[in-house]
Amino acid sequence: MADESNRAQSGFLIQGTEAFKVAQALYNTVTGKTEKLSKRFSENYKIELNDIFQLHFKLGQMCAQWNVIESNENITIHHVDDNKETFSSLDRFKVYDQSQTSPIESIVYEFNVLVQLQNTPKPQPYRITVRLGSKAAIYQKARMEIPSSMFIRFFRGGAINVDIDYVDYVVARNMLSTVDSWVSTVAFTQKNKVLNFLQSKSHLFTDVSSFLLLMVSLVTCVSIVSSVLSPDNNNQVLAKFLLITSGFVVSSFILGKAFGGILENAVDSLSEVSYIKINVGDKRVIQAVESSNIRSLIKGALSLVFITIHAVGCSYFSSVLYELLK
Q1: Whether residue 202 sits in one domain with residue 175
Q2: In sequence order, what DSSP letters do the residues of 99-144 get, joined into one string?
Q3: Where in the sequence is the domain holding 284, given as residue range(s)?
Q4: What is the pLDDT of residues 137-190, one digit of tens each?
C-alpha cells in the first residue's frame, strides 16, 4: 500500500511492453520534434512510370494496419534544365506531360501520414521521402557543365534515397521495410566491378603508359649499343646514334603520355546505365549515354592497340637503326 501511495504522489510510472512507445509519444508531444531514419540504395536502377505507381500502392497498403487520420502525397520532378514541377497528388501526377524533351534529373516522392496509435495521447505525424536519381541525366549534365574527365569521375550519383521522419521507431522500421520491398521490385543491372576498379585507378594510366614506353625504348637502345657502336666507329656515327636514340626515347615518352591520356579519358567517360525513363528527353539521354559508351570503348581499345604496337615496334626500330649506322 505504501508503494502504491508513493507512485500516486510522484505522478505515474510507465510499465509494460508499450513503455518505449508511450515515452516516444510524450517526447513528441512536449518538444514537437521527430527523429529521422535514412537508407540509401545504390544499384543501377531503371525507373519507369509504373514504378512510381507501385510505390504509391504499397504505401497505401501499408497504412491499412493503422488508424490513419489523414494522408497525402507530393511528387516533385526536377529536370536537367533546372525547371521543376510539383504535383499535389498521384492523380495530378498522372497528367504529367511525357512529351517534354528535358530529361528528368530526379524525382522526390513525399508521403505524409497522420497515425493514431494505441496508448498514445494524440495522432503522430510521419513523413516518408523517397528521392530517385537518374545517373544518365546527371552524367550528361556534368559532361556539359564540367567536361574534364578529372571532374566527371565524381559525378556518378543517381540512386534511391529514403528518409523517414518519425515519432515511433517501430512504425518507422515498418515503413522502411515497405519501401525496401518496393525497391526490390525495381529493375536494375549489376555493377561492373572491373569498370569501377579501372575508373578508380584511371588517373594512373598516363604515368604508367609513358613510363612503360620510356623503359621499353631505353632497353631497346641499350641492347643495340654493342652491335652498332665499335672502337672503329668515328665521332660522326656516335653523334648520329645519340641523336636518333634520344629522339626515339623522348618521342616514346610523349606518345605514352598521349595514349595514356586518351585511355584515361575513355575509361572515365564510360557510365553504367541507370536512369529514369518517363518523358521523351529521358529516352534521348539514355540513347546518348549508350552511344557515348560505345565511342569510349572504341577509343580505349585503339589507345591500347597503339601502345602495344609501339612497344612491339621497338624491335623493328633497332634493326632499322643498325642498318642506318652500320
Answers
A1: no
A2: T--SPEEEEEEEEEEEEE-TT-SS-EEEEEEEEEE-HHHHHHHHHH
A3: 196-325
A4: 887 777 766 655 544 555 554 589 999 999 888 899 999 999 999 999 999 888
